[in-house]
Amino acid sequence: MLSLFSARESRLPRRMLLQASLLAPASLMLLTRCHAAGAKESAVPSFGRAKRCIFVFLNGGPSQLDTWDMKPDSPAEIRGELRPIATRIPGIQASELLPRMAQLTDRFKIVRSVTHTASVHTTGVYTMLTGTYHRTPKVDQTAALPGDHPHLGSVAAFLMARQRSAPPFVCLPTLFRAPPVEGVWPGQTAGFLGRRFDPFVIEGQKLTAEFQFSEVEIPADLTVGRLQDRRALLNRLAPAAVSETTAVRAWNEISEQAWSLLGSRDFRRVGNLSEEPAAVRDRYGRHLFGQGLLLARRLSESGVPFVTVYWIDPTPAGPGGGEFDSHGFIYKHMRERLLPPADLALSALFEDLWERGLEKETLVVVLSEFGRTPHINKDAGRDHWPEAQTILMAGAGISGGTVHGATDRYAAYPAADPVTPPDLGQTILHLLGVPAELELRDAEGRPSLASTGQVDEKLIG
């Protein structure tokens, strides 16, 4: 199922589209471009090098010690059960459960020193998706609020060009929800920017690994002519004397996007994965994460500037935790349901982008909300650990075959070149052509910088 606006609230049925177009929510706000800052940054070669971004979020928190920051010389209760294997790059090791990605290490940078203090899922997700520290980083079950900082994709969507027939920011296959939190977790939407910049949510069906685009199809009982008549009537009913306020202009843009997507054959065609050869679909993996990465490649190639793909377990999690949140039996989960499908799908994405020549202008970031504890706990698992996380960055001029940062002997804390979420977020926005001094104004006119971090050139070079 696909939502024209956001899964934050209940879905908006097609027949309510015209009614929704009559609304003008006052929460939409003024955004100001910082032209001087943008002109200054444009002189930097890396600024705006990425025309699109695929943002892969392995929710739950993969263990850095069991993936890309292994410590084979540490005690058994630290290093765990998995053995390291050689990669394409001498001196760089990977987990034995990542053999395909190990052969592609020349294409991506391994960043081993991402660090913050948000030790629970909701605030960790917020911190990494927005590049902004949460006001209560250790308070669990935190719900999304209208005043939250926007997702990096929402910020990028404001400045990046897009085709009229495609939304600027898409996420799939769902938004995080988990009781007792009401609604979606914070950080996944446009926050104080308002629904104008929310992601366009494409929901997938876990059992079939298919994505449905029925919400952008015109119902059988409604012809194109009748739809155009309704739109013409709506335009005539709109008061001619309404002042051209920021809110009115913003809602007009939402309405125009909705009309352009409704019945868009091009957009539906992009979502038709049956157009891909069976071998390609098999290569990504016939599960929701694999097919989601394939759809992300198709969306990016078609002109969608920012696509976020969230991890969904291919099989039932069982005892110990869902997604990558393995508080117990971590090696059973790693071997049976986590790393093999992730290795298959991610390696397929990297190979696909390079084969199609898309890597020069496509930024790929693979990350999560945090890492996991150095010590294995009494339940044979690892717990939350935001102090050290390993992420991957590739494309758009990122130097592949390199490692940025390092952790101590237990992979517990950064020992060199720490990377904060604000600096990571600002670097991503910089590559996408978003000026460092971009100022966002909310409904009350209060200014806020798009990011409070600094561009880390070491992450790029």
What can you tell me about this protein's structure?
The protein has helices at 17-21, 35-41, 76-79, 99-102, 121-130, 152-159, 224-237, 246-261, 265-270, 278-284, 288-302, 330-355, 421-431, 457-460, and strands at 2-3, 31-32, 52-57, 84-86, 93-95, 108-114, 169-172, 200-202, 204-205, 210-211, 306-310, 362-367, 371-372, 384-385, 389-394, 402-404, 406-407, 414-416, 439-441, 447-449. The protein has 461 residues and is of the alpha/beta class. The strands form 6 sheets. The chain has a 9-stranded mixed beta sheet, with helices on both faces. A hairpin with a 6-residue loop joins strand 17 (406-407) and strand 18 (414-416). It is globular, with a radius of gyration of 22 Å.
Short description:
This protein is α/β, with parallel strands linked by helices and 461 residues long.
Shape: globular
Which percent range fits the helix content?
Answer: 25-40%
Structural class, from helix and strand content?
alpha/beta
> Ranges with pLDDT <50 over ≥5 residues?
1-36
- Report the radius of gyration as a whole number of Å: 22 Å
Largest sheet: 9 strands, mixed
How are the strands ordered across the major sheet? 1-8-7-11-3-12-15-6-16
* Mean of pLDDT: 85
Total beta strand runs: 20
Number of helices: 14
Terminal CA distance reads 40 Å
User: What is the strand content?
Assistant: 5-15%
